[in-house]
Hints:
The protein is of the alpha/beta class and 177 residues long. The chain has seven helices and six strands, in the order αββαβααβααββα. The protein has a single domain (27-174), classed as Glutaredoxin, CATH 3.40.30.10. The longest helix is centred in the N-terminal third of the chain and has 19 residues, at 2-20. The radius of gyration is 20 Å and the shape is globular.
Amino acid sequence: MNKRLIFVLAGFSLLACNFLFPQKASPTLNPEISSSENEQILELAELTIVRLHRQAGDLQAMLATESKKAAALGQVPVVEFDATWCPPCLAIDSAIESRNELILSAYRGIYIIKLDVDEWGWSNSGVQNFNFDAIPVYFKLDAEGNQTGEVIDGGAWGEDIPENIAPVMDEFFYSGK
């Protein structure tokens, strides 16, 4: 009898702790769809991540719009080509979602515009002058949404761990500033 009572009391105690000291929610994609109804947005302190979809229209027009949004937030616009099956892409996404300090520090002030290669393609047919052989690949944009010529891909850091990724991305994002 005493064992049952202890288990019941322990269960109630755990529930009470969750109500009194709720866990911080991990960042997730905003369930609200933006005005274009074709982009998902994740915002963390000084990092914004937007996913664009091909059916939303002209890529260059969308990049110009997103670059203006980035400028309004004081963030640097960067296009990232990724895929759901890409190990380095998944490692970066996981580090961001788990709020890894190294990655969040490297990505501070950045406005990531994600394009899935399985949706947009690897050739110029859907990606308008974005040429690359590996993913993830990042292209810096200017305030009008045009490429600046600065590019980096997942081959730049070796093993896909925050300790390797963060310094390389920090250098890329902030070189030339």
